[in-house]
Design a protein that fits this description.
By secondary structure, the protein is mostly helical. 52% of the residues lie in helices and 7% in strands. It is built from 15 helices and 7 strands. The protein is elongated, with a radius of gyration of 31 Å. The N and C termini lie far apart (82 Å). The mean pLDDT is 86.
Length: 388
């Protein structure tokens, strides 16, 4: 047996050879000449010693020996019959992404894919066994993210996703249950990461609404989506893209929010009705009954619909950035800003937390208070400056 000791813990790897005490030279750690297979056994032991000495001599500075690598080397030299091979980190991570795609859980698959891509860059595409990854590896990955300017919220998503994959690997026996370095990792700062929500003032909103866009259909559509979202009580882009004409009846809108599965029904604002009128007989509009020219019959699968929404949202955000520059607005405007601006406008005009929360679909006033606090008040500075 070959004993490998790491952090005072020993594991043993069989050489598939044996010798009784009378046939073993303890001082030389070799079979004695009296052993009938002394030549073969000692040749194997010399070979193992040579290979391992070469391995240790070539370990780069700052790196530690890999237990799994040593085991693999010995087992290959002894011709040991291996168990079903355990997957390594990147291999298993890739399998999990593919599994989520097969289950049509494309949102989660996309999130894990991004984390996997970052891990590959950090590791230089060199895969590692789970047992060879420790708390220092996780901390170095975190440092690597920080040095590249990756935001706290994004790091939180990456590290939590990494942890989820690790737990799944333990469940599938690719990693021992007692090898869980995340237990020593401080997640405190990632418990409640906040993405700074942005809103624009009514004056800035008006500038966007009054921009002369000529006959640029792409910009006109993007502005319409932004305006419709605002005038439909902060309707998010996913629900806007999924909106069909059957959801519009007698000046009312009725739809189920994708995120919460909550049903909404309310009377449409005159500006929202004007935007709908624009699309009623628009050439090139959706052939699948959707209000806006985003989804068509060809987007018949969950994946194609999701990819299409993501593609158009990215394009709309680019267009909103262009329009912000045209209007002299320095803030980064995205589709989410319409919802945030809607909420701060209601707050500025004296609506109660309960009223604002109800229209946003929040379950309680505490959620609304936190939401508004994260957005901030774009009019607050003006009011303070006017008072001094």
């Amino acid at each position: 047996m070959l004993r490998i000791t790491e952090d005072r813990k020993s594991i043993f790897v069989s050489t598939k050879k044996s010798a009784s005490s009378i046939h073993w030279d303890d001082a030389q750690q070799l079979a004695s000449k009296a052993h009938p297979n002394a030549k073969a056994i000692n040749s194997l032991l010399h070979n193992i010693h040579l290979k391992l000495s070469f391995y240790f001599a070539n370990i780069e500075e700052g790196h530690s020996p890999r237990v799994e690598m040593i085991k693999d080397m010995v087992e290959r030299l002894t011709g040991a019959i291996k168990k079903v091979p355990k997957m390594k980190l990147l291999e298993f991570f890739t399998q999990e992404v593919d599994r989520l795609k097969a289950l049509e859980r494309y949102g989660y698959a996309g999130v894990f894919h991004v984390t996997l891509s970052r891990l590959k860059k950090f590791m230089g595409d060199e895969d590692m066994a789970f047992v060879d990854i420790d708390i220092n590896f996780i901390r170095r990955f975190e440092d690597w993210q920080v040095h590249r300017g990756i935001a706290l919220t994004t790091r939180s998503i990456d590290l939590r996703g990494f942890r989820t994959i690790w737990r799944n690997a333990i469940k599938e026996k690719h990693c021992p249950e007692n090898h869980y370095p995340f237990k020593d990792f401080a997640f405190g700062k990632y418990n409640n990461p906040k993405t700074k929500k942005r809103a624009i003032s009514q004056e800035q909103f008006k500038k966007i609404a009054e921009l002369d866009l000529g006959d640029d259909d792409k910009l006109i559509n993007s502005r319409n989506y932004f305006m419709f979202s605002y005038y439909c009580r902060g309707l998010n882009f996913t629900d806007l893209a999924s909106l069909k004409w059957v959801n519009i009846t007698d000046g009312f809108i009725n739809y189920v929010r994708a995120k919460t599965k909550e049903e909404f029904s309310f009377k449409l604002h005159p500006v929202a009705l004007q935007i709908l009128e624009y699309y009623k007989n628009l050439e090139g509009n959706s052939d699948a009954g959707y209000v806006f020219p985003i989804l068509y019959k060809r987007h018949a699968t969950i994946r194609s619909e999701r990819d299409r929404k993501q593609k158009i949202r990215t394009r709309v955000n680019g267009d909103l950035k262009t329009m912000a520059e045209m209007a002299g607005i320095e803030k980064n405007i995205t589709t989410y800003v319409a919802r945030h601006t809607y909420a701060t406008t209601l707050k500025a005009k004296g609506h109660t937390i309960e009223e604002i929360g109800k229209t946003l679909g929040h379950d309680n006033t505490k959620t609304t208070e936190i939401y508004l606090d994260e957005i901030g008040d774009p009019l607050f500075d003006d009011r303070i400056n006017e008072s001094i």
